[in-house]
Write a structure and sequence with these properties.
Elements lengths: L3 H27 L2 H24 L8 H19 L3
Length: 86
């Protein structure tokens, strides 16, 4: 049986890809920069979750804490840029 942590990571991965798709559609329609920031942010979140999944399933034996933390910081910066009002 699958570990609950792996199941939750897969759910987050799927949701982040769906949100990236919605952001892409919004960017195509509006060409607004915040939608592009959200698109990249959600894609980075999907990459982060994929790396975490690989680490959870022990395909990657190394500690990737720095890479995962770096992706989280970039995600949050892009998210703030998308929400920032000028």
């Amino acid at each position: 049986m699958m570990n609950m942590e792996i199941i939750l990571a897969i759910i987050v991965l799927i949701l982040s890809l769906i949100l990236a798709g919605v952001s892409f559609i919004a960017y195509k329609k509006s060409h607004l920069r915040p939608a592009l920031y959200l698109l990249v942010a959600f894609l980075l979140l999907a990459v982060k979750k994929m790396v975490e999944l690989l680490q959870l399933t022990e395909w990657i034996k190394r500690d990737l804490g720095w890479a995962i933390s770096g992706l989280e910081v970039i995600f949050l910066v892009l998210f703030v840029l998308a929400l920032w009002r000028r």
